[in-house]
Amino acid sequence: MIQNIVCDIIIFGGHGDLALRKLMPALYHLCRNGYIAKESRIISVSRDGYSQEEHIALTKEKLQLNLKGDCYNEEYFESFKEYLHYVQTDLKESGSYEGFAELMREYPERERINYLSTSPVLFGTICKNLHDYDLITPVSRVVLEKPIGRDLASSRVINEEVAKHFEESAIFRIDHYLGKDTVQNIMALRFSNMLFMPIWNAQYIDHIQITVAESVGLEGRWDYYNEYGAMRDMIQNHLMQLLCLVTMEPPCSLDGNSVRDEKLKVIRSLRPIEGDDLKTKTVRGQYSAGAIEKEAVPGFFEEEGGSPNSDTETFAALRVDIDNWRWHNVPIYLRTGKRMSKRYSEIVVDFKEIPHSIFPNKGSCIDSNKLVIRLQPDESISMFVMNKTPGLTDGMRLQKVKLDLKVAENAPRVPDAYEYLLLDVVRNNPTLFMRRDEVEAAWIWADTILDGWAENNIKPKPYPAGTNGPAASIAMIEKDGRSWYGE
Ligand code: BG6
Question: Is 175 in the pocket of ligand 1 (CB under 6 A)?
Fold first, then answer.
């Protein structure tokens, strides 16, 4: 039975890219599917002085553009627009919140979801104003978009400012990777199949690879990206979360703290990468001009808004070790970058080789079993196993076959990550959101690498756009006698 929840969802930065491209389409689906009751309001707050009619027209235009498939429905939009409200507010100016406060006072008892889809520098100011206008009630929650800081010190400042006004249990820090269907499926796969339980450890697993490759460049965000780079933008958060889900111990339940406690233990067990390891276990890269799918694309400096002489990495590859019993001597290779040859995200669990072969070396040689969890663009889970080549052959010949554990084509529409996560905020379920200690522990680990790069003057190595990063990233894994899956 769908629970029809009445709430006010307030989007600060309501006309920003994230709000119109991701949040509104997600809310459209949730409302249309009956998860958010008709009396609820979606209140967009921004500085840019739109009338209510202009706001509705803008939302409609963006939904038509951003709703995938044929999900936009003109008739349904007539109902959806009843949810929509707009209020102009300069978020930096405390005097400017009066109109917004008045709107909120209309329903003082209602659950309030304050989604801060703004730059993190405004998080503290917005929370303070909500408090000063007496708009934080026992049923108010706040949602924070990443980045929560660019290092431990700045993330602490942000967390402190928000914590002055909201209890930790009311703070929902989004990492949209946790809302992806296949990412959630990692937990289902690991903890609902006896098959994997006894072999999910150092005795049977040789290593794990996590690749998040993007073919896009900076999409008009040069200034932001130049400040952050691949380590802060992707590894400290998205890849870290994937790593945690794949390697954590089974939580005692799916409640928020049990899952997050287990993730935190993994982060705290990561071996710091410092000293000589910075040169052998990390690779930084930066793309130069090249071509993707036969289209010429500019280099990092030539992107819109770019300027030369930046040392920001647009690619990073790391060998990570987890110092605990389960993962002793099992390296986890992480890799992410912009302007790589194609967009794909994938986790590969590579099992150890069999201890002894009874098969003559005919047909395929015996390859290790692999579990490949594909997150995007085509979601799938496959297992590679060895099998007998059918028919009369000269002796027993082997072949590698692929078992599909999940076939996305047969599934109903897969909701977008933001749909899952917004619904969880509405339902007050924090399991898929990052707790403060988790974010800060991830920064402690990432800061060691970032500081090491700076202190040792480790510069990014160039790689042409359209390739899979600098050759050094291949050398890094080959030195361990392994190779990147599929290359
Ligand atoms: C964001 C990063 O968090 O994730 C972007 O800031 C990146 O730089 C994006 O492009 C990738 O998300 P997805 O869901 O497209 O893989």
Answer: no
